[in-house]
Amino acid sequence: MEGCLAVDAKGKSGGLVMMWKEGNKVDIQTYSSNHINTMIQAENEKVIRFMGFYENTDPNKRHLSWDMLKRVRRTVKETWIIGGDFNAILDNAKKDGGRRKPLALMKEFREIVEKLSMVDLKTNNGGSRGQIIGRD
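Now predict its structure.
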C-alpha cells in the first residue's frame, strides 16, 4: 500500500484504518476516532469524497456523529460515499440474529439517511456487516 492512516481505538471500540494503492491521490480532510473523511482521485477519474465511519455504540452520543455528518454534507459538491459500521439498521428485516432493534433507533437512522439525501447501496458479497451509503 502506498498510503495509510490509522486512528487508534478509544477503549474497546472505534479505531479506523484507511489504506490506498499507488496511483490514487488521497487527501485526508478530517479524522477522529469515529471517521476518516477523504477526497480520492483514482487515475483518470473524477474526485469523490469517501468517509470511513464508525458510529458510537452509546446511543446518548450518536447525535454527535449525526451532527458531524450534517456539517460535512453542507460542504459536499462531489459524489460522497460513506462506508463502515453505523451500529444501526434501516429496518429489522436487515437484522441477522440477535434481538430486534428498537423502532426509535431505526427511525432516527432513517431520518439521518433521508436528511443527507443518501441511499443504501447494495453489495454483492453478502458477508459485509458494514453499510455503504452514497450520494451523487
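The chain has two helices and eight strands.
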